[in-house]
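Hello forum,

I keep getting stuck at the same step: I have a sequence, I want structure tokens, and every attempt I make locally crashes halfway through. Rather than fight my setup again tonight, could one of you with a working pipeline run this one for me? It's a single chain of 257 residues.
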Amino acid sequence: MSINEETELTVQDVADLLPTGTVDPAVAEADPTSFEPVADPVGQDAPVVEEAPVVVGEDELFDEEVEARAPVESPYDRPGKWFVVHTQSGYEKKVRQNLESRIASMHLEERIHEVVIPMEDVVEFRNGRKATVSKKMFPGYLLVRCHLDDISWAAVRDTPGIVNFVGSGGKPLPLGRQEVENLLQAPDEDNFESPRKSRARFGFDEGETVRVKEGPFGGFSGEIIEINEDQLKVKVLVNIFGRETPVELSFSQVAQL
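Reply #2:
Ran it on my machine without issues. Output:
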């Protein structure tokens, strides 16, 4: 055959040139448009790693609590200044009512903000029993928070029952921060509940000479050297046979001379 002669290939000749092999029937019948997700190589039986719990120290918890707590307002930081006003003793409540009524009728709420009677809780011991009573810290005085000018000064000064402002040379002097917070009991930032100031009033003091009313030492006198508020008892130095002997007695067993 000449190289210039054209060679004619039949379909069978072309098929014989292709590579031979077998095809999986399942693959041959599969839909080419379908898709099955590939399984996770890790598998469902792989162990699950749990996150370790976060441990917070006590100091960190305390710091978070302090930061979340709202700041405590001091009465000194309120608008205006605090002044002391001298009133008729025994009529503090009535004078306060008169001044508050005068403020309302004269529409001075923007100048005179607050009128306070300083109070304290006093622990008293009567007939050997402990009782807590509320009493005025300074009888005959009021605290007034205001923007002091001629109008507010005249409104306060001309109120029935008020004698005058407390000051130097007739000039009202405002109270300082420490004085205001001591008188009005500014709450402690470390204490959620801040009660009013309280103090004990026993009817007698250490160093005072008292008389023993009853018991084996009845009729003796001695000096109080110790007061036990919780147990309602006092320790008295009693002169027995020329020697001073400490004797513990209840409040009901002693009396002032």
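The radius of gyration is 47 Å. If your local run keeps crashing, start a new thread with the error log.
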